[in-house]
Hints:
The structure is a homodimer. Chain A is an alpha/beta fold. Chain A has 4 domains: 4-121 and 256-325, FAD/NAD(P)-binding domain (3-Layer(bba) Sandwich), CATH 3.50.50.60; 137-253, FAD/NAD(P)-binding domain, CATH 3.50.50; 339-460, FAD/NAD(P)-binding domain (3-Layer(bba) Sandwich), CATH 3.50.50.60; 466-567, Oxidized Rhodanese, domain 1 (3-Layer(aba) Sandwich), CATH 3.40.250. In chain A, the strands form 8 sheets. A 5-stranded parallel sheet of chain A has the order 3-2-1-7-19. In chain A, strands 9-16-10-11-12 form a 5-stranded parallel sheet. In chain A, helix 1 packs parallel to helix 9 and helix 7 crosses helix 18 (560-567). The mean pLDDT of chain A is 96.
Amino acid sequence: MGKKIVIIGGVAAGPKSACRVKRLMPDAEVTIIDQDNLISYGGCGIPYYVSGDVSDEKELRNTSFHMTRDEAFFLKAKGVTAKTNTRALSIDRKEKLVLVEDITSGTQESIPYDNLVITTGARPNVLPIPGADLDGVFTISDLHKAIAIKERIAKGEVSRVVVIGGGAIGIEMAEAFTDLWGIETTILEFMPQIMPRLVDWDFAKMLETHLQESGVTVFTGEAASAIEGKDGKVCRVVTPKRTLEADLVVMAVGVRARSELAQAAGLLVSPMGNIVVNERLQTSDPNIYAAGDCIEVKNIITGKGSIAPMGSLANREGRIVGDNLAGIPTKYKGWIGSFIMKAFEHSIAATGLSLDAALAEGFAAAAVTTAQSDRAHFFPTQAVIPLRIIFDTKTRKVLGCQGFGPMSDAVLARIDAAAAIIGQGGTIDDLSQLEMAYAPPFATALDALNATANVADNLAAGRLRYVSTREFLNWMDDFASQPDWVALDLRHSNEAGSFVEKYTKEKWLSVPYIEIRDRYQELPKDKTMLIICDAGTRSSEIQIVLDHFGLTNNLVLGGGFNLIRRMGVAWWPN
Amino acid sequence: MGKKIVIIGGVAAGPKSACRVKRLMPDAEVTIIDQDNLISYGGCGIPYYVSGDVSDEKELRNTSFHMTRDEAFFLKAKGVTAKTNTRALSIDRKEKLVLVEDITSGTQESIPYDNLVITTGARPNVLPIPGADLDGVFTISDLHKAIAIKERIAKGEVSRVVVIGGGAIGIEMAEAFTDLWGIETTILEFMPQIMPRLVDWDFAKMLETHLQESGVTVFTGEAASAIEGKDGKVCRVVTPKRTLEADLVVMAVGVRARSELAQAAGLLVSPMGNIVVNERLQTSDPNIYAAGDCIEVKNIITGKGSIAPMGSLANREGRIVGDNLAGIPTKYKGWIGSFIMKAFEHSIAATGLSLDAALAEGFAAAAVTTAQSDRAHFFPTQAVIPLRIIFDTKTRKVLGCQGFGPMSDAVLARIDAAAAIIGQGGTIDDLSQLEMAYAPPFATALDALNATANVADNLAAGRLRYVSTREFLNWMDDFASQPDWVALDLRHSNEAGSFVEKYTKEKWLSVPYIEIRDRYQELPKDKTMLIICDAGTRSSEIQIVLDHFGLTNNLVLGGGFNLIRRMGVAWWPN
């Protein structure tokens, strides 16, 4: 007989480990245990099932060749036994037994293993606020919750939703409610920006503006303090600032590892509750492996361990566990944090660390932002894709990259390419010379990502001085804060005209890019000029020209008005 | 006064060098010389100008902020003098002078330089066949030719075009003629496949089939032996096999460096006629730099020098020349050969070496091909993107990657990511662990590129035995050639049924994937089974299962019928 392998947890990492090891050791006896009756589904597809893009939950459990991944499928196709509705109660490491209980019948049995794999995943956090247990308050923990939500919507029971948490899942769910169902949806985010830590403030702001434009109400810096109901059913969400009516509340405030079983078995677990594994994904008991949302994995950039609850990583890790179970010593290098998200007509993506995260980690980090075209500017479908590179000014290593653009794969392409460079420990010079594929329908001759790396190079070399969008916006809100600042607007005078009119010639100088060399003597020597154009490119050039003419008291608005316009400001002249 | 820099050649690398050095050394005196009156245009945009996607040739000369890059623009915006209609006649390296002639007036003058930059580009090859000089025979050498072609079309003078050369430019032009103008267009390619050396046969075949479906006639392995005309105007193209009527002929059969000026000045030029430069893009005279289509640059993968005539590289090289002119010792690592091309409703792209090229270079190369979804298979817009990875079986280094898919950026994303790995000298393991961004609207949890790297890993480890698409197709054309081969079709029986009917139960076995473990005993032991499914994934699994049951005489059809269907075959049952 072959090796006995028992896997606890039947979604993503678990089935992947099972199938991989069966392919490498066809005579292994592999058993998957799961307390649910639905297994091996694409959990990341839940928002698209709720929205209706995916009509049937079965599609989330189907293979690409339209077979449903149920118990019979695993047995017939993979030779793997899947025991559903079966809860693992405890692990006897000495005897190598897992005690399980059939949830329906209550029958218990001990299943022997040579190797055990723990892929118990994560559970959603529930805020400790009054009303969190009311009927109609959901976390997005499994497919059953998704089915229940969609049923309520289909029955017409839901006209107002409050989503607590402005991370990826909260936003994807908000889109699902709003886009197809026309439900009045509000996102509450406790932090000062949505997608905190994932992207920096500028990118979060562009996304937030697009969400608002698309009909989602977003409140940042605002926590839910209570959920109120009537007859046990949710009615409203209370914050320190307002009360929001709601027939349904989604709580999407992060997850934590399900590691109780591992902990009870005496396996090493991190202070945060994540199962500790080595590079081969072995726990502190070498016969027991773990993978997916329940483990602590090393971030390649910071070298620190943390939970990394992403379906893409769970699948990678599952394969690595399968290899090691079969005696192939594959190692997991760690993760960097690549993600992408659809939000209505836009996409947002990032890889590596945000500037905030990089600074918090102690890197000598800096960031540059551009707002250039995704394809040749003469190609009809071209669009602006703001990109940001975060890098270490000492080592020149790329630490992170963020992108925002239309709903296409344009941002994906740049983020995947940057992820490859970051994963290989590459520098901004590597990113500058990265030979991206070019033709006018797909890119610019010097790709926007290369160009952004070049801007990073200029910044690193001291050839560029920036004003951040945040500082600029603060100034626009309160001119008194920086009395000696003036805008130097390089755009065509018909674009700059309304700004000069609104903000006066004292605060807003209009000198078109092409005329600077002839007219620089008109410019003030006693003021700090904030140089503005659409993409930031002309501004950077003109900074050098002005410096050359001795007018060195100037700063470039990186990413220019292409960025500001997407962030949305109240002060834009009509 | 600043350094005197003279640049010969006003498209791509030349203007880029000029602008970069002016940004680094604002007091440099920079002069661009060009024999043309149009400079700094996006030559890669010519097919889109001819097609009408780009309405005015000026758009190819405009900046993203809608200013035309003419002499006045360079002077006012960049502080660079552009002398157009001016031909460089000779270089006096001792006196550091360039002798130039005003083409209109015939006046000559000597322009002194401290540094010279040669960016003279390449000229299209003209086949030495009768009639190549007839009116109506065009090469795509500059914007004037494009304007002339479009004028003829607009006047209604063109109803049939023959494009000689099935490389990227030939195909892009063929699309331009066919798509908007409805011109009857034929491509003649001398080699046995279109895009020779750029992609392998399978990918060329998928593209060719799509071209044919889109109305372009393609003949491969067929050379133009003569062009015939009447009253000096082209009428037809003659091949050894047929005569093709034509009002217009495009000759797109490669380019060679314009290096006569450099050669006459005694600069080192390769046997192929490319200007030899070092990593800082200095010629054999350290005061003279060269960049763009006229130079020989090192291929990072092969270590060999060659011409690399691509607009994307010219721009990168121009920047590096600018750096070095200003005393920043930036080095050019070399090129790998990334490209992408739109062809009607599809895109095709590659980076690095094709399998053919890798084998010809002496690598112990192997290739795997997959045909998986670009996004989650349950997401409505998902499509199959065949991907191929070429790798070195000894070092596991990735040598190349090819992709074919719908007209989106899906293929771009995978090729750019692979280009990053190849440029960094990465292995198939790096590609397997490359953390690509995931969400169902953009990718599969394990991206198609990661999955292809995993297949490469399986092949490298001896866990996979292939039949190539070519061998398979040969067999389908002639069953007698392999009398002991049978197909083992794993698809649903309703898909396989018509094949069994057409090819008989002796040659075509239908056993659905899910039933193999129950029915393997029905399978023949004395035959070589070619295992077939849609994507190749199920086949690979079943190979392992059959091997385990002792039925080891079997081969997987990599990429499966997803690939075959796109390649187009006459034998598909109705």
